[in-house]
Amino acid sequence: MARDFSNPKKLGFMRFLQVAFAFNILLTLALSVFLIKGQYTLGFGDVLDYLNLIFEAMSFWLIWQRKAAARSLIMAFSLFNIVIGTGYNLGQGGFDPLNQLLSSLFDIVLFLYFLTSRRVKAVLTEPFTAEVKREELAREISYYQPRTWAFWRNLIMYFCVFSVVGHWMEAAYCTLIRFGILPGIYDPNSQIWSDWLYPFPVYGVGAVACVLLLYPVKNFLEQHIGSRVVPLLISFVVNALVCTLIELAMGLMLNQPLPDGSLPLWDYRDMFCNFMGQVCLQNAIAFGIVATLMTWVVYPAMESGLRKLPSDVVNTAFVGVVVGFLILVFLYYVNVVVSGLVVTS
From its phi and psi, is residue 12 left (phi > 0), alpha (psi between -120 and 50) or beta? Predict the structure, then answer.
């Protein structure tokens, strides 16, 4: 009996690759936390590994979306790794055919698999076309329904979840500074390095703002501009400006100079292209990237996933998420001292 390779739910070896890519990305990022700025040197192999991490993330996404471009990207980057690795070893005078073959084996397997696999050709078929774009846009516009309970239910869950996830994202950002990959300073004694479930509601508010304000802007741009790239670029600029203005407003309200002239919460006066030490170009770009990912990728993906679940399941999850978030709020924020009363866990 002939095997059917056309079922898009059966990815075969590609599913293994997705799991391997995701595991490697998470493991590498987790281990990077233990690198201390000034105590390590990034060699050629390290830089190539980080490039491959980006490639793996892109490949994971394209396979998930069943895009035909995944095949070309993976084949091209596999060849890139083989050629660059071989060229580097030749240039360094350390080329050994057997060692080079072994070190390039995974890339060779990837290249040959995506070159010859019938499953790849049958499953990865989605093009980047205007028709597909219109269908995707219509589906994404349908997610924005503020007159429905489901919309606000999901929004409340996103606020709760991203209040905690935002904490982790800030830790990751400070880790890049810690590595020396990004300029800036970080506080090694900051709250972000401990109590990993400590909620930072400002990031929950940011997620809500992305959905309520920036997501409609993204949809508007896509509706009125035929290109795919131009709306993305304009959306990025708008997102960066809005987020920076929010940070500036918060800074002017909450981050006023102390008597000694220092700023208590954050101080960007030593950063390039800063304004009053409250905002700077580097953070504006970072905000733009995160907000653009949220509006273009994360929010549509979350809405798509939740819509596939029964309403009762999502409502039950909503109750659990809200109560879990309230537990964190009461543990970390609400501390009422009553004389003579001692509560122990």
Answer: left
Query: Are 302 and 252 part of one and the same domain?
Result: yes
Phi and psi torsions of 280, nearest 5°: -150, 165
Q: What global pTM score does this model have?
A: 0.62
pLDDT for the residue numbered 335: 56
Can you tell me the distance from the alpha carbon of 124 to that of 119, in angstroms, rounded to the nearest whole number? Answer: 8
Amino acid symbol at 44:
F
Q: How far apart are CA 24 and CA 121, in angstroms?
A: 26
Q: Do both 82 and 150 map to the same domain?
A: no
Residue 342: inside a domain, yes or no? no
pLDDT < 70: residue spans in the chain: 1-9, 33-42, 128-134, 264, 334-345
Q: Would you state the pLDDT for residue 160?
A: 94
Residue 6 resides in a domain: no
Is 5 within the bounds of a domain?
no
pLDDT of residue 40: 63
Q: Are residues 144 and 111 in the same domain?
A: no
pLDDT score of 6: 53
Phi then psi for residue 273, to 5 deg, are 55, 60
Round to whole Å and give the CA distance between 137 and 213. Answer: 17
Three-class DSSP category at 34: coil
Q: Which segments of 146-228 does DSSP mark as H helices, in order?
A: 149-179, 201-209, 215-224
Q: Does residue 137 sit in the same domain as residue 176? A: yes
Residue 167 in domain: yes
Whether the CB-CB separation of 171 and 153 falls below 8 Å is answered with: no
What are the structure tokens assigned to 38, written together? 């000034």
Domain end point (choices 102, 128, 154): 128
Residues 181 and 46 in one domain: no
Range of the domain at 46: 13-128
pLDDT at 311: 86
Q: What are phi and psi of 240, to 5 degrees?
A: -65, -45
Structure tokens at 288: 């733009």
Count CB-CB contacts under 10 A for residue 129: 9
